[in-house]
Amino acid sequence: MSRHPVLDEDVLLRNGLSRLPVVVLGSSPPAWLSEMCGATGRVLETWPDESPRDAGPLFAAPGLVRAVNQLAGRTVWVARSQNDSRPARVVAALRDLPGDSVVLAEATAAAAHLGATLTVAHAVPRSFAERSVALEEAVERGRTQLATAIRAATSRLSGGSHVHSRLVRIRPHELVGEALDADLLVIGGPRADSGDRAGLVLNCALQHAPCPVLLAPRYPPL
User: Fold this and answer.
1) Is-contact 113 32, C-beta < 8 A?
2) SS in 3 state form for the chain?
3) Residues 6+ apart with CB under 8 A from 37
4) 77, 25 in Cβ contact below 8 A?
5) CA-to-CA distance for 48 and 25, rounded, in angstroms?
6) pLDDT per residue as tens, the chain (222 positions)
7) Rounded-to-10 torsion of CA 57, 60, 61, 64
8) Residues with Cβ < 8 Å from 48, sequence gap 6 or more?
9) Cα–Cα dist 118/140, whole Å
10) The pTM is what?
11) What is the CATH number that goes with domain 14-216?
C-alpha cells in the first residue's frame, strides 16, 4: 500500500515541518521555541490575533477546548504561564502510526534543538483482560509502533539527546495527566479532516499536564 508523503516519518523529520506554522495559545512563546522556529523558517502566530498577555478566560476549560478545536489540523503551543526554561525531558504520546507521524516529528525536532531527552510513550488500556488474545495483539502492536518511532527519531538526534520508549498498561488519559514526568508534552490534536473534537485524552493533557503542551496535526490511518 502506498503512503501519503505527509505520513512518511523520514520526509517529515527532514523537511516537512518547515511548512507548518506554530500557533501560540496563552502566554508568549518561550525563547527556545522562537529560536527553533526562526532557525527552520517556521512562522509563529498568536491566537487570537489580539489576545491579551495574561491567560484570561481562554484557559477556562470550555474556552481552551473551543480554541483547540477551531485550530484542528495545525501545530499549537499551549502554556498556562510564561516560562522560558529549556525543557530537558520531552515526551511524545503516540496513539498510532502513521497517524501520529507529525507528533513524532515535532517532538524529535524539539528534542534535537534543545539537546533534550526524548521519550516516546504508548498506552495499552487496562480494559483488556490480562489473558486475552486482544491484549497480546495490542501490546505487540504498541511495541512495533514504538520501535518504528525510535528508529525514526534516533536518526535525527545527536549530541546530548537520547531517545527512549515507554509502553505502559494504563488508561491513555492517565498517561498525559498530572503524573507525567516531562517538561514538554507533544500529543496529537483534533483531526481537521474528520470533524474530530478534543476527546478525553486531549482534554486531560490540556487541563492536567504539569508542563506546556505542543499539539501536532493528526492524520487518518491509510
Assistant:
1) yes
2) CCCCHHHCHHHHHHCHHHHCCEEEEECCCCHHHHHHHHHHCCCEEEECCCCCCCCHHHHCHHHHHHHHHHCCCCEEEEECCCCCCCCCEEEEECCCCCCCHHHHHHHHHHHHHHCCEEEEEEEECCCCCCCCHHHHHHHHHHHHHHHHHHHHHHCCCCCCCCEEEEEEECCHHHHCCCCCCCCEEEEECCCCCCCCCCCHHHHHHHHHCCCCEEEECCCCCC
3) 22, 43, 44
4) yes
5) 8
6) 233 333 344 444 444 677 788 999 876 889 999 999 999 889 999 887 544 444 444 455 567 888 888 888 889 999 877 777 899 999 999 998 888 999 999 999 999 999 999 999 999 877 655 556 578 888 899 999 999 999 989 888 866 678 999 998 888 888 888 788 899 999 998 877 656 677 788 888 888 888 999 999 887 544
7) 40
8) none
9) 22
10) 0.84
11) 3.40.50.620
Q: Which amino acid is at 43?
A: V
Residue 112, all three cell numbers: 534535537
| DSSP-assigned beta bridge partners for residue 73 | none
Q: How many CB atoms lie within 10 A of CB 38?
A: 11
Please report, for the chain, the start and end positions of each structural domain, with discontinuous segments joined by +.
14-216
Could you tell me the CA-to-CA distances from 97 to 42, 75, 94, 148, 153 in Å, in that order?
A: 24, 18, 8, 9, 13
